[in-house]
Design goal:
With 120 residues, this protein is an all-alpha fold. It has one domain: Up-down Bundle (Four Helix Bundle (Hemerythrin (Met), subunit A)). Helix content is 76%, strand content 0%. 28% of the residues are buried.
């Protein structure tokens, strides 16, 4: 499949999975389960001002999005992690919004990939 995706880098996913499409399917299913949790936690922890926990959640989410080659989201999550650790809250809200948008786009894309079994 010629995938002009802006969200997922399937070549990175194939590298991580050592070209094993069954493993790719499992990774996708796990990530699809994680996405709503990441969105909820990022929002809630930021609203509640729990910056130490927000930094940890951003770190965890960053690891997952990077497996899927989501470079923009990964870079923003790294910044959110650092801003939260340093109590620099001004940029966090807008960055979370962009990450959530990327995660929602990834959800749509990955559900379609699972249905069609096309991961390239």
């Amino acid at each position: 499949m010629d995938n002009n995706s802006q969200t997922i880098d399937y070549s990175n996913l194939y590298n991580v999975a050592n070209n094993d499409e069954d493993f790719i399917k499992e990774l996708i299913k796990i990530f699809l389960d994680q996405i709503p949790v990441f969105i909820q936690n990022l929002n809630q922890l930021f609203i509640e001002g729990k910056l130490d926990k927000l930094a940890r959640e951003a770190h965890t989410a960053k690891s997952s999005v990077m497996i899927f080659g989501m470079k923009n989201a990964g870079l923003l999550l790294n910044k959110i992690e650092l801003w939260a650790e340093n109590k620099e809250v001004e940029e966090i809200g807008p960055a979370i919004e962009i990450v959530i948008n990327d995660l929602n786009l990834a959800t749509t894309e990955l559900i379609l990939a699972l249905k069609t079994e096309k991961f390239k």
